[in-house]
Amino acid sequence: MGDNKKGAVYIIRTATEIMKQWAIHPFLFAIYPIVYLYLHNLDIIVDLTDVLAPLIISIAISAILLLALSFFINKQKAGLITTTALIQFYSFGHIYSSIGNYVHVFEIGFNKGMLLLFFYAITFILILIIIVRAKKTVMANTFLNLTSIILIIMLLSNFAIAISNIKTQQLPPTNIHKSDFSGIKPDIYYIILDEHARFDVLTQEYGYKSTEFIDYLNNKGFYVANSTSNYAITSLSLASSLNMDYLDNTNVFTTIEQARNNEVAALLKEYDYTFFHFRSPWRPTNQNRYADKEIDCIRVTRFMMLVTQTTMIIPFEDHFHLLEGDKRRYLKCVFSSLIDLADQDQPKFVFAHIMAPHEPYVYGQDGEYVFSRDEDDEGYVNQLIYTDKEIMKVIDKLLDTDQKPIIIIQSDHGPATFESMIRDPTDDLVRNRMKILNAYYLPGNITGELYETITPVNTFRIVFNNYFGAEYEMIEDKNYFSRYDQPFNFSDVTDKLKDI
Amino acid sequence: MNKKIALIIAAVILLPSAYAYLDPGSGSMLIQIIFGSILGALFTLKMYWKKIVKYIKRLFR
């Protein structure tokens, strides 16, 4: 008993001494902002690999700065300066994003980036002078050590809760109904154009008539439906269409897993199809371990972009668009890879969720470089026109074969701003969000099976019935709207959509 | 009272998140940092309490 007490006293003393003398806070403050962003967006970025690169870079920069400063001043002071720099670096983007583009001081307008950088530089110099001149820094060091540990403990508890949520979600095995089939197996391309509006919404809301694209599709033999989405959010929409049914769960992790481990791909693999998955910068399609082959056009993940947006890099990124500009390369890569795939061995099922015309807008209508992160109408329409043009090139190539493939060009949902999706929906929002592009190229003149108001939930029921001898019944086309912040709080807007 | 404190702590620790968009969560991060700093300051005060009292007494002597 006495030994235990001595042991406890020894541990407390050692811990106290570490808190006072060691500078562990620079490492914890290097970890905290990254892990915070990860946990805050855990619904979307479950893959830890997204977080590793920025985390390692952050810790490495902190260690290098600490080491470099240690050559000139004592370790505690080096730690305090490093942490000051880290706090400034990681707080900059938060403040930068929350103020307007121009800040007025004595009626003179200043660029917010320049003004904020100036303010930060002055603050840093002042703190630097105070730290260098200070006789004792032990209390400041202790305070930062304790605060950083408390912040990390808060994150760990958050992480533990999130992990326990994930563990409780067990996905049932994919329910496959394979029919006896030994006929021709056409390639199947399922191409999702994120946020592509339906033609009538484009005309009414954006004043743009997509006649050229629709005429092209009709002339090529596509059936262009007057379609609506079953759900208003990407992962819900994809989980539903790829499993040919409405969702029966209310958990985001299960939904994402359903979108990946989906019935359509599983069935097609049973028919000896090779499953190609195009990685997108977006959950839930940023990877798929169930795919036979993954096409990776991603260099800068959305998470990396998010980290950048919260740091001191943001004014420079806003000016030069070095990272966001990577989307141009990504889109080019996706379209050219789709074209290249046409020549690969058959049969194949190709799933490509393409982040266009979704923002950021990086292409004008003729492929010229533009940049806008704002969800503005002009940027949206121009990127949509560009996307349509590229898709037409892809279709030209895919149809330039003897054995014609099945091509489905669909949007997961229509356009809406982030702000509008966290408020109660208006009729305009429901209409714009739920009315989608939905075009089918089904070789062998079976377009008669399709109907004007078909929704994605029935897409592959028709494909399997007509090409693989399956006997799926068409299920009722329903539309469920939900907000981003309440994804499973569905409003049945099926009837409403008929009137608006 | 304890229940109220527990609720406040839970609200700070459990970060809300929007679903489909990546969100910097500036507001909740700020709250968490303020909360962490206050706790850090209280623990620091506890560790140096004797020294602080001694220092203050010396000032008014």
Overview of the molecule:
- The complex is a heterodimer of chains A (500) and B (61).
- Chain A has helices at 2-21, 25-40, 49-70, 75-98, 112-133, 138-167, 199-206, 211-220, 234-241, 252-260, 263-270, 302-309, 314-320, 326-341, 377-398, 427-434, 459-467, 494-499, and strands at residues 102-105, 108-111, 188-193, 223-224, 274-278, 293-295, 348-354, 361-363, 369-372, 406-410, 438-441, 480-483, 486-492.
- Chain A is α/β, with parallel strands linked by helices and 500 residues long.
- Chain A has a seven-stranded mixed β-sheet with strand order 4-11-10-3-7-5-6.
- Chain B is an all-alpha fold and 61 residues long.
- Chain B is built from three helices and no strands.
- Chain B has helices spanning 2-13, 26-47, 49-59.
- In chain B, 23% of the residues are buried.
- The model of chain B is unreliable at 11-20 (pLDDT under 50).
- The interface between A and B is large, with 46 and 30 residues.
Q: Compute the number of helices of chain A.
A: 18
Q: What value does the average pLDDT of chain A take? A: 89
What is the number of beta strands of chain B? 0
Shape, principal axes of CA atoms of chain A = elongated
Q: What is this entry, summarized?
A:
The complex is a heterodimer of chains A (500) and B (61). With 500 residues, chain A is an alpha/beta fold. Chain A is built from 18 helices and 13 strands.
Give structural attributes:
heterodimer, A: 500 residues, alpha/beta, Alkaline Phosphatase, subunit A, seven-stranded mixed sheet, two-stranded antiparallel sheet, 18 helices, 51% helix, B: 61 residues, mainly alpha
